[in-house]
Automatic annotation (TrEMBL):
The keyword Coiled coil applies. GO terms for biological process: regulation of protein targeting to membrane. Residues 751-782 form a coiled coil. It comes from the Bacteria. Residues 410-419, 426-440 have a biased composition (Low complexity). This is AsmA family protein. InterPro entries: AsmA, AsmA-related.
Length: 791
């Protein structure tokens, strides 16, 4: 019985061996090529061509294809394979561990995106097949709900051992991928592209090797060089079920060169490496380790993402401290300002829809900065940001370019001064240049940019709380100390309370708000300025005030306005308050010239009336007597016009003159209009000492009002940068005073003369009366002489 069974088995084996040996000899598989080509063409928009086929069943199933070519409907090549093979050893099937080897030799893929956006690879799929699939899906009847028994039968029972034990090897050699974007001009070539995927299985670790030569160009941007990646993929099984895959990948890209002209340049000597260790499943992704190395940068990351039933994640990333000074060859823009060590590091913690913590540290000579930030809810962000620094020297950190340095040297107003004032003036031509520069800067429409941003739904819902404290900041040659800022943003409205800083030798405090809801930003501010050097502020940040008054400024006021554009900000600014400037001098108004010319006009007025009368000489203000101890007024500012109705300028004791009156300055139109009274408190002009002697009449202090110092009116007009002075009111003013004094002096002399004459007449009468009395007494005595009276 056993013998018969062995004979039967031997007969079967012999038949199989005969089939394996004879079939490839008598069956020509190439006769099926046309049918295979037609089957392919039936399902694509294009054509397919298959080269010679060969079949072998000797110990294995071996199929080889000498050539395969696929073209699109336009006849352009899409895919070409020089040779391919399938190898399936029978012994692996008998052993319960099937092995399949797939090999592609020299495949070429041509991916082309046309100017109209069409993609040749996508155009291969036929529309009718897509529609048929969609129709079948939409018209299919809904399946009946499964019964409990069916659900139990359908429950996973684990993979069959033969599936777990099976493996596939995939080898792609000398592949070439060419991608072309006709619209953007991007050309990308990957040559010598090789993939070795070994032991692809659900029951054992899989090895992965990928290497290729890259060559990508877009205009002047290029990327080229060898790329290599190795890795291991390990399936994780539990009860014969795949729980997920552990992945380890490592890529070395040191020899790749990348060039973006004037922006980025990586040579083949710059370290570029990637390492990933992770676990993935349909429910979870765990990043055990991520390490990216580039030059001296090392970026590390780890974390986990839960994919089902709802997405949640938690990741941590950190970057070591790098020195930007060593990046100048990689980032050419750094060459213009990074000449010293600049060290930067950061860490970040990401949780579901949150940036839990972001911390950045920056250090450089005379510079340090710590930034800590957090964001809640990325779709409607709530941002918390805090920045601290013991010192920031922006000028040292970002020195001006050669062009900026030359422009600063040529800056107008650096040497010219108004005579007698010691102040700097911007001439009319220079003012035009400044206005032209401002116009160029205004080309960037900030209002329009903000108008676009406010339509962003995320920005509408965004909230922010910002705190900044810098012990010292140096920028544009300006030193700022104790800079404190608290800022909140909500519902497209920003509130700043407060900004505090010490600058220009004084302190500034500001409470402000900004509303972005309207067509243009609306802002309000309450400003307090305490003892800043206004000249320094003007030269640094306030060029429109260059032709006003320099000195130690204190100011308080309330402001509001609309627009953040350079050309509209000053025009729309409305402000009311008061100011005081100590140790003040006018930048363009020549006080010395104005007073001396006014005094000369006063003397001329008297001489015209009394040409022969000696008036004596008068003094003139010296070049250093055009400064003031204090200049003050309340003020208003609107449409770029500043009005100071109670303008007062008090001179230093014993020096100069005082001024009061109305002052109006058009900061946009470069105009000034002032009605001033010049008050010579200390008689520096000598006008109070002027006296008049005419026909025996002397009038002392003929130009001064009784008990008051010399005072005379002057109007200032024309351009603020080139003021002119009007003395029209001086003659009438002084003649009015002089005529009253002359009239009074003449009247006093007449009264004195009358009084004198009356006294002489009385004396004559008395003398006459006395003589009459004496004569009467004598006659009476003579009459009675020698006569005897009865008594």
């Amino acid at each position: 019985m056993l013998k018969k069974a062995l004979i039967a088995v031997a007969s079967v084996i012999a038949l199989l061996l005969g089939f394996v040996i004879i079939t490839p000899l008598v069956v020509d598989v190439n006769q099926y090529r046309p049918e295979i080509e037609q089957l392919i063409q039936k399902n694509i928009n294009g054509s397919a061509k298959i080269g010679r086929l060969s079949l072998s069943l000797w110990g294995r199933l071996a199929i080889e294809i000498d050539e395969l070519e696929v073209k699109d409907a336009k006849g352009k090549r899409v895919l070409a394979v020089q040779g391919s093979s399938i190898n399936f050893p029978f012994i692996s099937l008998i052993s319960g561990a099937p092995e399949l080897t797939l090999r592609l030799d020299g495949p070429e893929i041509y991916a082309i995106k046309e100017s109209d956006g069409s993609f040749n690879l996508l155009s291969l799929a036929k529309e009718d097949s897509k529609a048929s699939a969609a129709s079948t899906s939409s018209t299919s009847e809904p399946e009946a709900a499964p019964t409990p028994a069916a659900e139990e039968a359908a429950a996973p029972q684990g993979l069959a051992p033969i599936i777990v034990a099976s493996k596939v090897d995939l080898l792609i050699e000398n592949a070439k991928v060419i991608f072309s974007d006709k619209g953007s001009g991007l050309e990308q070539k990957i040559t010598d592209f090789n993939i070795l995927l070994k032991d692809v299985s659900l029951g054992r670790p899989m090895d992965l090797d990928i290497w290729a030569d890259l060559n990508t160009k877009l205009d002047t941007i290029s990327l080229e060089g060898p790329f290599k990646m190795t890795g291991e993929i390990n399936p994780v099984l539990k009860d014969q079920e795949v729980q997920g895959f552990e992945v380890k990948l490592e890529s070395i890209m040191d020899k790749i060169s990348i060039s973006v002209p004037e922006t980025f340049r990586k040579s083949d000597k710059v370290t570029t490496q990637l390492q990933i260790e992770a676990f993935g499943s349909p429910e979870k992704l765990t990043l055990k380790s991520l390490i990216i190395k580039f030059h001296d940068l090392v970026l590390e990351g780890r974390g986990e993402a839960i994919l089902a039933p709802e997405l949640s994640y938690s990741f941590n990333f950190s970057q070591n401290q790098i020195n930007l000074k060593t990046w100048k060859e990689i980032l050419p823009p750094l060459k213009d300002f990074v000449n010293e060590d600049m060290k930067l590091s950061w860490t970040a913690d990401l949780v579901t829809d949150h940036l839990k913590t972001f911390k950045l540290n920056f250090k450089a000579p005379e510079n340090d900065l710590t930034l800590v930030a957090g964001v809640e809810n990325f779709s409607a962000p709530n941002i918390n940001l805090n920045m601290k620094s013991t010192g920031l020297n922006i000028d040292r950190l970002l020195p001006p370019s050669k062009e900026e340095a030359e422009a600063a040297k040529a800056k107008p107003g650096s040497s010219s001064s108004a005579a007698g004032t010691g102040g700097n003036a911007v001439s009319g031509a220079d003012g035009n240049a400044a206005q032209q520069s401002a116009a160029e800067q205004a080309a960037s429409d900030v209002d329009a940019q903000l108008a676009e941003l406010k339509n962003n739904e995320m920005l509408k819902q965004m909230k922010a709380q910002v705190g900044i404290r810098f012990d010292k900041v140096t920028a544009m040659n300006v030193d700022v100390q104790d800079f404190i800022l608290k800022f909140t943003f909500n519902d497209l409205k920003a509130v700043i309370e407060p900004i505090k800083l010490k600058v220009f030798g004084g302190q500034i405090n500001t409470f402000a708000s900004l509303n972005l809801q309207g067509p243009r930003p609306i802002y309000k501010a309450k400003l307090t300025v305490d003892s800043i050097q206004f000249k320094d502020a003007v030269e640094s940040q306030l060029p429109k005030f260059a032709n006003t008054i320099m000195g130690n400024l204190s100011l308080s006021g309330n402001a509001k306005g609309e627009s953040l554009n350079n050309d509209l900000m000053m025009k729309n600014l409305v402000m009311n308050g008061d100011f005081k400037i100590l140790d003040a001098s006018f930048a363009t108004v020549d006080i010395v010239k104005m007073v001396n010319e006014g005094g000369a006009k006063a003397i001329q007025t008297i001489k015209e009336k009394f040409p022969k009368a000696p008036l004596g000489s008068i003094a003139s203000l010296g070049s250093g007597e055009g400064k003031f101890k204090e200049v003050s007024s309340n003020f208003s500012l609107a449409q770029g016009v500043m009005k100071a109705p109670n303008f007062k300028a008090l001179s230093f004791p014993g020096k100069g003159v005082d001024i009061n009156g109305y002052t109006e300055i058009d900061l946009l139109g470069d105009k000034i209009q002032a009605d001033w009274n010049v008050i010579d408190t200390y008689n520096k002009t000598g006008l109070k000492s002027v006296s008049l002697k005419e026909k025996g009449v002397e009038v002392k202090e003929i130009l001064a009002e009784p008990g008051k110092p010399i005072r005379f009116p002057i109007k200032v007009g024309c351009k603020l940068s080139e003021p002119c002075y009007k003395y029209d009111a001086i003659p009438g003013h002084f003649w009015n005073i002089a005529s009253k004094k002359i009239e009074k002096a003449a009247g006093d002399r007449l009264k004195a003369e009358l009084k004198k004459r009356t006294a002489k007449e009385r004396e004559k009468i008395k003398k006459k009366q006395k003589k009459v009395e004496e004569d009467l007494k004598k006659k009476a005595k003579d009459f009675l002489k020698g006569k005897k009276l009865p008594f």
